[in-house]
Amino acid sequence: MTSGLRTAEQVIRLVRANEDIAHHGDGCPSGVISRAESEMGLSFPPSYRRLIEEFGMWAVPPVEFPGVYQTPAGGDKLLGSPAYTLEDREALGLPPHFMVVMHDDVWDVVVLDSSQPDQDGEYPVYAWNPGVLEGGLMEKLADNFGKFTLNECQQHLS
């Protein structure tokens, strides 16, 4: 098992062990995940895919991980990463190789950079602030989504 998948499994155990604080959905079927990837023109890295399969979306307040989900009010529309990614491409000029995994008050837009896969197919995690510089200001947050998410969850569940 890769480092990203190991940390994703740790996140799953941590969220489930703290369901009095953490919240999550019921998971996301593979067909919906494939549709989300197709709509964005990007593939989910293994750690993010695993967490989306398990939860769909999840939160460890105050941090929310939008993942991929649908609501009765939204009908067939995919929400979370697909919606944020497509909206931010249009409104903010998000580069096409970035996948939005979170909007945050501190970091602005948290993205996965699919142009830099590692040997396990994981993408690095960056904070992207579109308004600071031409092309956006980038700050690396983690080597993969599993590590990023585990760190965020541990901080808020300690």
Describe this structure in words.
By secondary structure, this protein is of the alpha+beta class. The protein has a single domain (3-157), classed as 3-Layer(aba) Sandwich (SMI1/KNR4-like), CATH 3.40.1580. Helices cover 39% and strands 23% of the residues. The protein contains five helices and nine strands, in the order αβααββββαββββα. A hairpin with a 2-residue loop joins strand 2 and strand 3. The radius of gyration is 15 Å and the shape is globular. It starts with a helix and ends with a helix. The relative contact order is 0.20. The model has no long low-confidence stretch (mean pLDDT 92).
Cα-atom radius of gyration: 15 Å
SSE sequence, one letter per element: HEHHEEEEHEEEEH
Give average pLDDT, whole number.
Answer: 92
How much of the polypeptide forms β-strand, as a percent range? 15-25%
How many β strands by DSSP? 9
Full CATH superfamily name: SMI1/KNR4-like
Class by alpha and beta content:
alpha+beta
| Shape-level CATH architecture | 3-Layer(aba) Sandwich
Task: Report low-confidence residues grouped into runs of 5 or more.
Answer: none
Whole-number total of structural domains: 1
**Fraction in helix:** 25-40%
Number of helices: 5
Q: Strand order, biggest sheet?
A: 6-7-8-9
User: And the CATH topology?
Assistant: SMI1/KNR4-like
Which descriptor suits the 3D outline?
A: globular
Report the major sheet: 4 strands, antiparallel
The level 1 CATH classification is: Alpha Beta
Gap from first CA to last CA? 26 Å
